[in-house]
Target: Kelch-like protein 12
Amino acid sequence: MKMSSSKFLSCDGHFDFIMDMLVKQRSNKRYCDVTLVAEGQKYPAHRAILAASSNYFDTMFSSQMKEEFERVIKIKEVTKVAMEQVITFIYTNKVLLSEENIDEVLHAASLMQVQDLLALVIQFLSNEICPLNCLHYRQLGKLYSLNDLVLECDRCICENFDQVSTQQKFFEMDEVEMEKLISSDELVIESEEVVYECMVGWVKHHLQTRKQYFPTLFKHLRLQYVRLDYLSRNIKKEGLVREFLDCRDLVEDAFYFHVKPDLFEKQKPRKSCYPCKELIFIPNKQQNIASYNMTEKKWSSLQVVGESEQHVMFIGHDEMVYCFGYIYENGAYKTNISKRFNGIKWENLAPMVNRHSEAAVASIEGEIFVFGGLSDVQGNVVYFANTIIKYNPINNTWVKVGRPNSFQTKASAVGVGDVAYLCGGYEQGNGGQRNTTTVCAKVEVYDSVSKTWKAGNNMLEGRASCAVVHFDGKIFVFGGYGSNNTLLTSGEFMNIADGVWTMLTNNIPFQLGEVSACCVDDHIAMYGSSKPGHIALYNTNNGEWRTFVEEGQNLFNGRGCLMAK
Model:
């Protein structure tokens, strides 16, 4: 008879079944040969299972220690909360970690050398690191020699230095850690003044013992990036600075640098907490285009004139600003405006094939769509531009592609894939009196492929001349005018997936009037006609606002278009 061939076979789920049975045995105290005690709480277990899971227990049970022969073993350095999680993990491969128990479980896993559990604890800590806990987690990492965790915490501290440096635990760092941090090129800061203030605060926290370290720390400041007025008003008058000659010399050098920068070697700038280096604003009314430096918080003129006519339509597209419309003179629309600004100069484009003014404009799949708006105004009577036209930037051509769904002026639009969302505006009647006071909240959705319209869910607040942008699956709208020309400070967003609108928790810090906005990384920057020199920056991660104000420049006023550079 021929023998059959040999095969190794396995049963799926066998080990899971064995562990399930061991859990039941432990619950029923069957075959348990040891009891662990933590804070008076008893935990029956099997020596073999403990030894297989933990070097700590393996050594305890095999090295002639007294615990090898005892049936009840007290674990004095572990809490019952932690012991519960350790035993549960050993028997079930599951552990419940939280901010409340993580310190205790980490200590227990480290002490009892349960390496797989320790790896999960480290993973939990790494995933949960944030500005509010990074200093504490860093302490844990140093205590238990978790070098990778320390590095992750250091990265979080550097990236959120403005926020972290105000916390009480920050002042518990020793002088070596403080110098390493202050000297780092990786600090992401709003300004060098923040570094100076946290350094002074750290020294004064324990003045008698830390004053000796002040000159060493002070030399790491990048004083060339401190504002001149702050140098004079704050740093020069600080008692610690005046006490040390080396510090006074560095301050004097900083003053001289502001007068004769070419005589000094430029210090390396730290990383900016701002999402772009500068914002370009293209105004109307024959004013110069201006650049706002986010780090220096200053406007400067590019010496290029913006678009002169107030009623043109702006849109940012492919890192350029496009400008379309007609000049309204002596009661009639005249010259066709069609051009773009490439960051350096204006370029003339093919004229629109229809007359459109105060229309919604959107960028859809590389092309620019203009939706309706005004075709003419006679006195206070308005007439509908009952077409949609499309501009192709590659071949510089316009074509008609359809008709708008309704007659609005100063609605705002944004493209998402093949679709455009038109939001708000002033509803008008063709041949009727111009409406400039009553805004609508409706949203209309245009499909550029099927050339069809459908109604979207209304916004929570009616608005016209608002900013609208698409970011991370959401449509955001900001500011604009409410009914009776009320300046709005509210914002809201719609989840595209379900069409639900939600008001922003935090309002815009100031009224913006007619708003222009652009996305910059995970921020949204905006400028409004009612606040010359003011920039608002919205953080989409935490819903917080930052404002940048340059008073007294009077470079421009009114509406325009904002783009990041």
